[in-house]
Specification:
By secondary structure, the chain is mainly alpha-helical. The chain has helices at 3-12, 25-48, 54-77, 80-102, 106-111, 113-132. The protein is elongated.
């Protein structure tokens, strides 16, 4: 994936008034990836130690997969519709993960609140971009 042409492609898309400048995404995701790594690592470790069932780990795994798929879909394939579907799946699996972990390790759900807020915003942004560029 050519970052220069991907950046140029993204820059030419019609965006809603609330779209942040492109430079905001890197720092925000850098912080969120630390939160994701810590919480996923904890849940994975607890599952390996058989302190949590696989059913608790599953939404975390799916969330990681959908999150990892977003950039190649959006910027590699340049497919806004598939990226919209994917970001909705990121949001849905995050809510699912937070719900299943709540009664077992509440702190994991709580530290993911900034991730939830950002993904909620990113979902509205992506859906808006998809609509505006249909």
């Amino acid at each position: 994936m050519d970052n220069t042409s991907s950046a140029a492609w993204y820059a030419q898309l019609v965006k809603p008034f609330f779209a942040p400048p492109a430079w905001v995404f890197g720092p925000v995701w850098s912080v969120l990836y630390v939160v994701i790594a810590i919480s996923f690592g904890f849940v994975l470790f607890q599952t390996i130690k058989r302190r949590l069932p696989f059913a608790v780990l599953l939404p975390f795994i799916l969330n990681l997969l959908f999150n990892a798929a977003y950039t190649p879909i959006q910027f590699g394939l340049r497919n806004n519709l598939l990226a919209s579907i994917d970001i909705v799946l990121v949001l849905g699996t995050l809510v699912w993960a937070m719900r299943v972990i709540w009664g077992r390790a509440r702190w994991v759900a709580l530290v993911n609140i900034p991730y939830l807020l950002w993904v909620g915003f990113a979902t509205v942004l992506q859906l808006s971009i998809t609509w505006l560029n249909r």
